[in-house]
TrEMBL record:
GO biological process, one term: oligopeptide transport
Keywords: Membrane, Transmembrane, Transmembrane helix
Superkingdom of the source species: Eukaryota
Name by which UniProt lists this protein: NRT1/ PTR family 6.2
Length: 584
């Protein structure tokens, strides 16, 4: 048995042979899928707004919302992908199926940007000429392509990291150490894919053709699928334990159905069937949920065959299962106060790219594509991670005796940096608008403004550095503070903040455009042409919201109490006639 992995099987369903399955080679085949997914999704997202405004002739605010809705849906569908993987398909089949869906989506997008029938006629050079926007059919084909890609991304992201870690055995010290390196390389592959997307792929889109760039994405993803499938016999597969989402709904349904029942006089009378070593002791938070563990008449099947089967989980849940749901609920205030960061992040791929498209981007004879300005964003992430790993962590360990900032401290730093980034963006936009107003009408409408695009670097760098802190902080927080049986769910909870951040951005843009539509000479803050709007006020609003959100985060962090390891004495259920929890 020492040559097999206890909780894993091979592709035939037999216990996985340690020497023939798992390890770095299968993990590397899985990482190939991730780098191609990042190449496709980010390569499309960072430069899509210029296609929507310049080719499809959509208003600036509408284009921004199309991008943020696309990205928000991509991350939201991670919850669907995780549910399917945990409940029905398994991680291997989920990756294979949704990779094909994304390949189909990028192929459709390549076709949509190639055929003249699928885009409106080009504008004339006259400033007085009104450009014809894309019609419903043309936008329908574009939406079909984008949301096929979003569906593929959601399925992939929910399973790639998990299936990669399945290739290493946590009970083996050597493989456990290899797993730690896997996470580092996983993040490196994400960054590499993003870097290639905002440089090489964006350049191909602008200088060669979008259909060529999207075709490259489709072909590369198809090749990654073939490479992924080639490792079928080498992978380790782990059986699904069921979806945590279903488990949460079971507790909620059971508690609601028993809402009129009175709880017993002692928590010891609540139902518990979890082995002693895995139990989570009762807590006083969210007492309403305790009703899901009240033993009612017939819950244990005594009227049929005594102890013949486990109780119906939709009617009776164990105390440990209830406490797991409570632990997830305690995370929600922190979860809610990190959404605004991703709303700020969304502006880096929408309005900031639009700003860049109106500014001077030449270096010698080379014209920097507007979407490639996000390379400073990626560079800020990599530099921040390197400085934190090599300088801050060693210094902090010598000073405080701790290996770096806590997860909550990293999230706080990320929120502060993003707020400063929006303040810097507002200042840069004031300067850009001043130059725009000093130009003629033709230049303001169609020309490049005589102001360097490098004026935008501070906002990209500050928000990028903020992401380095908040991304790692959130991932650490949700994984370490969630119950063991809901690690997949906690990852989905983390990714949902990204999704909601993009959707909040879309909502905020719509509200601001509606409220300010009659101001600024009838253009509003978010005019169809940003040179006529007040984007600086919009950035200022985001900075103010960031300050308010940061205060709410501090309050939520103060309320949150970290779970501490249970002392050894708590392993005894009864100590001198009372529960250990009562004594502790």
């Amino acid at each position: 048995m020492g040559w097999t992995v206890a909780d894993a099987v091979d592709y035939k369903g037999f216990p996985a042979d340690r020497s023939k399955t798992g390890g770095w080679i299968p993990a590397a085949l899985i990482l190939g899928i991730e780098i191609c997914e990042r190449l496709s999704t980010m390569g499309i997202a960072v430069n899509l707004v210029t296609y929507l405004t310049g080719t499809m002739h959509l208003p600036s605010s509408t284009s921004a919302n199309v991008v943020t809705d696309f990205m928000g849906t991509s991350f939201l569908l991670c919850l669907l992908g995780g549910f399917l993987a945990d409940s029905f398909l398994g991680r291997y089949m989920t990756i294979a199926i949704f990779s094909l869906v994304q390949t189909l989506g990028t192929g459709t997008l390549a076709l949509a940007t190639k055929l003249p029938q699928l885009r409106p006629p080009p504008c004339h050079g006259s400033a007085s000429h009104t450009c014809e926007p894309a019609n419903g059919f043309q936008m329908g084909i574009l939406y079909l392509a984008l949301y096929l890609i979003a569906l593929g991304t959601g399925g992939l992201k929910s399973s790639v990291s998990g299936f990669g870690t399945d290739q290493f055995d946590e009970k083996d010290e050597k493989e456990k150490s290899q797993m730690a390196y896997f996470f580092n390389r996983f993040f490196f592959f994400i960054s590499t894919g993003t870097l290639m997307a905002v440089t090489v792929l964006v350049y191909i889109q602008d200088e060669v053709g979008r259909s060529w760039a999207y075709g490259i994405c489709s072909v590369s993803m198809f090749m990654a699928i073939l490479i992924f499938l080639s490792g079928t016999k080498r992978y380790r597969y782990k059986k699904s334990l069921g979806s945590p989402i279903v488990q949460i709904f079971q507790v909620l349904v059971a508690a609601i159905n028993k809402r009129k029942m009175e709880p017993p006089y002692s928590v010891e009378l609540l139902y518990e069937d979890t082995p002693e070593t895995s139990r989570i002791h009762h807590s006083d938070r969210f007492r309403f949920l305790d009703k899901a563990a009240i033993v009612g008449e017939g819950d244990l099947g005594r009227n049929v065959v005594p102890a013949a089967s486990a109780p119906n989980p939709w009617k009776l849940c164990s105390v440990t299962r209830v406490e797991e749901v409570k632990m997830m609920a305690v995370l929600l205030p922190i979860w809610a106060t990190t959404i605004i960061f991703w709303t700020t992040y969304a502006q880096m791929m929408t309005f900031s790219v639009e700003q860049a498209s109106t500014m001077e981007r030449s270096i010698g004879g080379f014209q920097i594509p507007a979407g490639s300005l996000t390379v400073f964003f990626v560079a800020a992430i990599l530099i921040t991670l390197a400085v934190y790993d090599r300088l801050i962590m060693p210094f902090y360990k010598k000073w405080k005796g701790k290996p770096g900032f806590s997860s909550l401290q990293r999230m706080a730093i990320g929120l502060v940096l993003s707020t400063l980034g929006m303040a810097a963006a507002a200042i840069a936009e004031v300067k850009r608008l001043a130059v725009a107003r000093s130009q003629s009408v033709d230049a303001t409408t169609t020309g490049t403004l005589p102001v360097t695009v490098f004026l935008l670097i501070p906002q990209f760098f500050l928000v990028g550095a903020g992401e380095a802190f908040i991304y790692t902080g959130q991932l650490d927080f949700f994984i370490t503070q969630s119950p063991k049986g809901m690690k997949t769910m906690s990852t989905g909870l983390f990714l949902s903040t990204l999704s909601l951040g993009f959707f909040v951005s879309s909502l905020l843009v719509s509200v601001v455009k509606s409220v300010t539509g009659s101001s600024n000479g009838g253009y509003g803050w978010l005019a169809d042409n940003i040179n006529h709007g007040r984007l600086d006020c919009f950035y200022g609003l985001l900075a103010v919201l960031g300050v308010i959100n940061f205060v709410m985060f501090l309050v939520s962090a103060a309320w949150f109490k970290r779970r501490k390891p249970k002392p050894a004495i708590q392993m005894d259920t009864i100590v001198n006639g009372s529960t250990c929890e009562d004594k502790c």
